[in-house]
Inverse folding.
């Protein structure tokens, strides 16, 4: 009996070990127990909780893949931007000639050849191609009060007439007074030509101060200090080769006038690269 009883105990324990309720999946709807690998409840047909967890784990994995792709794309974009910045930084900038001062040839639309001298170096010949352009506006820090027969406003610099001039209206020779030219769009200037002084006649030319040193400021922040000759010829400035929206000319020093203190410029002509 003892042996038989022991056998019966083993027989009843064996299914308990392998068929414990803890190995089954309980339905969240009807609370029935189901096989561990079952996807749906055998009683009510509801999706079993274990399967839902698998789906959620799968969804999390897909979200992780999406996030990884987004990070890779962001990293690639960052590398491209940095590469572009470094490449532009390594490109040589166009040289800016800090000195003009030599008489220019009579300006024509197209290509012209001028002689320029920088410091004590030998004369060099360069071709300055460009199209004559007209700024959309010109303003000045001051202007001499007009008389019954003459005006001295800044727009006189663009009228193509050497008998008219802009004369600053500040006290003394006008050091620090300026005139600004603005364009309707960005332009790449190839040269600026200036007719110094009031060139209507000898009396006005020598009677008024002429510009000796001229500050040329561009919208890009580039600044040049230009030495002009005391000459009635057109004089050429080689500007920055960067696209600009405006140019500002400031009187730094002058050749003194014999009679008056109002510094004058007669004409300014600007040439730009064709677009």
């Amino acid at each position: 009996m003892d042996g038989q009883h022991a056998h019966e105990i083993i027989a009843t324990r064996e299914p308990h070990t392998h068929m414990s309720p803890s190995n089954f999946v309980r339905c969240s709807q009807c609370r029935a127990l189901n096989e561990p690998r079952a996807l749906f409840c055998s009683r009510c047909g509801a999706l079993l909780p274990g399967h839902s967890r698998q789906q959620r784990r799968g969804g999390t994995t897909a979200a992780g893949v999406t996030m990884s792709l987004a990070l890779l794309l962001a990293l690639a974009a960052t590398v491209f931007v940095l590469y572009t910045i470094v490449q532009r930084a390594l490109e040589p900038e166009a040289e800016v000639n800090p000195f003009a001062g030599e008489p220019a040839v009579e300006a024509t639309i197209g290509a012209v050849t001028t002689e320029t001298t920088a410091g004590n170096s030998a004369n060099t010949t360069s071709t300055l191609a460009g199209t004559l352009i007209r700024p959309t506006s010109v303003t000045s820090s001051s202007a001499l009060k007009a008389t019954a027969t003459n005006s001295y406003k800044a727009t006189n610099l663009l009228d193509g007439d050497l008998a008219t001039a802009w004369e600053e209206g500040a006290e003394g020779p006008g050091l620090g007074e300026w005139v600004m030219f603005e364009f309707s769009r960005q332009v790449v200037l190839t040269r600026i030509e200036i007719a110094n002084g009031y060139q209507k006649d000898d009396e006005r030319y020598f009677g008024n101060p002429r510009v000796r040193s001229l500050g040329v400021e561009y919208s890009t922040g580039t600044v040049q200090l230009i030495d002009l000759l005391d000459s009635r010829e057109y004089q050429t400035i080689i500007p920055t080769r960067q696209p600009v929206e405006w140019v500002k000319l400031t009187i730094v020093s002058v050749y003194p006038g014999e009679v008056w203190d109002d510094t004058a410029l007669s004409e300014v002509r600007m040439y730009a690269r064709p677009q």
Summary: Confidence is low (pLDDT under 50) at residues 1-19, 52-59, 92-127. The domain at 113-272 is CATH 2.60.120.260 (Jelly Rolls).
